[in-house]
Every structure is written in structure tokens, then in C-alpha cells.
Amino acid sequence: MTDLSLPLPLPKQPGGLPDKRQVAASFSRAAASYDSVAELQRDVGSQLLSHLPGDFVPGRWLDLGCGTGHFSRVLGERFPAGHGVALDIAEGMLNHARPLGGATHFIAGDAERLPLQDSTCDLIFSSLAVQWCADFASVLSEAHRVLKPSGKFAFASLCVGTLFELRDSWRQVDGMVHVNRFREFGVYQQLCAASGLKVASLQTRPHVLHYPDVRSLTHELKALGAHNLNPGRPGGLTGRARILGLVEAYEQFRQAEGLPATYQVVYAVMEKPL
């Protein structure tokens, strides 16, 4: 069983963050299996859409970190008269999404350096992607640059407390890094407040999934391409004794529905001032 987790080491430290090429390659490899296990991603993205005003109709929208294009297609159906751009850092995801349509253009690009002109988008929609961005201040700056006045940046991300059951169970087994680090919710609040964008809403909400056993959870994380890329992570396969230790430790969290995996989801809607 390989060692797995979800996004992202936050603090900007030399050598303390995953290489973007590794992130892109991991998600590219997972393109074919991603949608089959993306319950959390679909639920969170749907929740994020519900935070947009009902009368808001963007002329041009950007699906930032589009992945397999599920929400590009949802946005295309919701705003049929709009012009859609789907962007992802992983070429494999774009290759999967492009034939399925939804957006007008599919572009490989980095959220921290958007390959788009100033003031060209009415909506930037990003569901469970920006947690991979080490420099979130740059993501906000780029959103501010690319949005038109009164344009909206709606994003969902993850913060501290995500996968705490897996993290705490591994801590009982060894002292190595098995679960990626996440920003504190307070950091999101500080960066958003300093971004020049008006914060219409910013909140965090737990989303709990349940699994029959640990292997089901780790299999899903692998199928999502969400590998542990932290410095200090164990290399290669995890030994049988350590896996048995993990299974035993995780059992303390078992509920009637199964083994819980908690995701602390950040939901935000921001607006560029006139």
C-alpha cells in the first residue's frame, strides 16, 4: 500500500513545498480514474455554485483548476450564452476534459500566473484546486487582475483539520509526514482581506465521508491523484507492520457509518470593486 494524502503544504519554506511538476504529473496520471471517486469534489463544487447570486449571469467565466471538466460542463449548461475557459496545470486532465466539452477553450496554465489578459472575466470559479498553490496571495492578485469590475471569484479550498483522522493515526505509527499540511482558516481570512477584492462571504464547513476500511480510503486518494508530496514523506511502499499499525490506530475513530475522513472546506465568494 502506498502512502497517500491530499493537498497542500502551506508555509513558504525553502524546499518545503511540492514541485508543481510533480503535482501536474500526479493528477495527469489520475485523469481516467478521477471521476469515479470524486464524490467530495462534486459535492463541494455544487455547494460553491449555490453561493453565487441567483441573478448573476457572467458573460465570460474561467474554471480555474478544471480537472476532468465536470464543473466546466455544469457552468456551460448554467450559463449557455457565456464564453467559458477551462484551465488546469495538468495536461492529462485537459486531454480528458477537452472532448467532453463545456468550455470554449481548454488551456494549460498556473493559477499563480494566469495566461489571460487583464479585466477579461466576469467569474472565476475554482473548486478544490487552490490548496495546491503555495503562493495563494499570487492567486488572489491574479484573480484581481483578470476579473472585470464587479466580477466574482468563487473558490472552495481546504484548511487545517482536513484528514485529521488519518494524520493522527499515522502519528501513532511513526514520526514521518504522511498527510499534507493545510493553511489555517485564519490565513485565508488575512490574505483575502488584503487582496483588494471585496469579501462577500468566507466560511469553513466540515464535510465527512465514511469508508468501510482504511484501504478504501487510501485507494480513493490514489485514484484522485492526491499523493503525499511533502518533504519528509516515506519513500516507496509502506511496510506491512506499519500498515497494520495504521489500521489499528484508525479504528478508534470508527462510527456506525464506517471510518470517517473529515475535510474542512473553505467556501469564499469575492468581488472586484468598481
UniProtKB/TrEMBL annotation:
It catalyses: malonyl-[ACP] + S-adenosyl-L-methionine = malonyl-[ACP] methyl ester + S-adenosyl-L-homocysteine. It comes from the Bacteria. Its EC number is 2.1.1.197. GO terms for molecular function: malonyl-CoA methyltransferase activity. Keywords: Biotin biosynthesis, Methyltransferase, S-adenosyl-L-methionine, Transferase. Pathway: Cofactor biosynthesis; biotin biosynthesis. Residues 62-155 form the Methyltransferase type domain. GO terms for biological process: methylation. Residues 1-20 are annotated as: Disordered. Residues 1-17 have a biased composition (Low complexity). The keyword Heme does not apply. InterPro entries: BioC (IPR011814), Malonyl-ACP_OMT (IPR050602), Methyltransf_11 (IPR013216), SAM-dependent_MTases_sf (IPR029063). The keyword 4Fe-4S does not apply. It is an enzyme of class 2 (transferase). Converts the free carboxyl group of a malonyl-thioester to its methyl ester by transfer of a methyl group from S-adenosyl-L-methionine (SAM). It allows to synthesize pimeloyl-ACP via the fatty acid synthetic pathway. NCBIfam families: BioC. Belongs to the methyltransferase superfamily. This is Malonyl-[acyl-carrier protein] O-methyltransferase. It comes from Pseudomonas hormoni. The lineage of its organism: Bacteria, Pseudomonadati, Pseudomonadota, Gammaproteobacteria, Pseudomonadales.
